[in-house]
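pinging the channel bc i need a second pair of eyes. not urgent but kinda urgent?? the chain im working w is below, pasted from the shared doc
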Amino acid sequence: MKTPNRHVLGWQIAIQEYRGNMTIVHKDGNIHKNANGLSRWPLPNDMNNPACVPEEASPQIPIEGISVTDLNTTFFEEVINSYTQDKNCSILFQ
């Protein structure tokens, strides 16, 4: 089996002590309507968890400034006209 996701890993950990003493039987989702506590069992997202999803490696860069540009209304009119004249985009406006 490839690396399990958190839900599968949760199941594997929870039923490991019963290995060899139980049989798992699939039950269709339409029949199985009661809540499944094991799939909602939270696991820590750390290196001890084989299904760990590492956080982004890139450092957080703070926003140093914001620039606001006031565009001429002519610009927006040109954008609107180009969309309405484009045969692929004109379908969206119908």
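so The two ends are 50 Å apart (CA to CA). and The CA atoms of residues 12 and 19 lie 10 Å apart. — does that match what u expected or am i reading it wrong
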